[in-house]
Amino acid sequence: MSYPDPPVTPRPAATVLLVRDGSNGLEVFMATRHQEASFMPGLLVFPGGRVDETDGDARLLADLTAEERALDDLPSRIGGIREAFEEADFLFARDRGGPSLITAARLDSLSDWRRRIHHRDATLAEMTEAEGLVLAPSRLVPFAHWVTPRIRHKRFDTRFYLAEAPHGQEGAHDQRELVDSRWVRPLDAVAQADRGEVRLAFVTRSNLKLLARSATVADALRAAAERRIVTVSPEPFDSPDGPALRIPADAGYDITEVLVKDTGAG
Fold it and tell me: Helix 124-131 to helix 111-118 angle, to the nearest 10 degrees?
């Protein structure tokens, strides 16, 4: 099996599993990436992307609690908040001095900011400063940590977070990077992929099946908070059926080996 030598250095990234309690059980927000996207084109994914330098802007940190500022993954959590806002129209923020996350109406008033941030015409820090907003990184609970295999030419060091969708915020794909979106039960998304209706990367399928072990948002958040996060950096090996990848058994997934051809773009 060949791969870049030396391996490409993975870029920090953050992905958010936004969940809610639906009428038939736990649902997660997912969207389809544009067919011309440079990474995972056409696949059904959770909102997420690279962590930017702007995610560490001091203005974003000023009004956080001391406990939040001490989080060792704070830039990743802020990156996840920004990506969820840009790509899926969810915002984990409150008005300065307010006790609760912003309402759907308040979110609607920020639509121009969303467009400008997405097009890199403005930053998240500029929006929070101008609008008197304070981010809520503690609402994102660590869920998983995956590093793209070294056989790939494009690699990410991705922290996955679980978060209950803010009350009243329904989500909407950006019609740029994401072209379709839906609320779906985790195992329903897996079944759709099995029927060929959607495409899932191995990393997405694995985390959907892990999420599906919980029946409600409360269950999922509790399980994530209690679970020891084991970094998954799939290792290549040659199996009798062809090139394959192996992941740590103690990461908690129901599979430890997968053929490279079955991994999608993950």
Answer: 160
Domains and CATH numbers, the chain: 13-201+215-227 (3.90.79.10)
Total residue length of the chain: 266
Percent pLDDT > 70 in the chain is 95
SS (H, E, C) 164-200: ECCCCCCCCCCCCCEEEEEEECHHHHHHHHHCCCCCC
| Mean predicted lDDT score pLDDT of the chain | 93
Q: What is the pLDDT of residues 163-220, one digit of tens each?
A: 999 999 998 887 777 888 999 999 999 999 999 999 999 999 999 999 999 999 999 9
3-state secondary structure the chain: CCCCCCCCCCEEEEEEEEEEEECCEEEEEEEEECCCCCCCCCCEECCEEECCHHHHCHHHHCCCCHHHHCCCCHHHHHHHHHHHHHHHCCCCEEECCCCCCCCHHHHHCCHHHHHHHHCCCCCHHHHHHHHCEEECHHHCEEEEEEECCCCCCCCEEEEEEEEECCCCCCCCCCCCCEEEEEEECHHHHHHHHHCCCCCCCHHHHHHHHHHCCCCCHHHHHHHHHHCCCCCECCEEEEECCEEEEECCHHHCCCCCEEEHHHCCCC
pLDDT value at residue 6: 80
Q: What is the pLDDT of residue 201?
A: 92
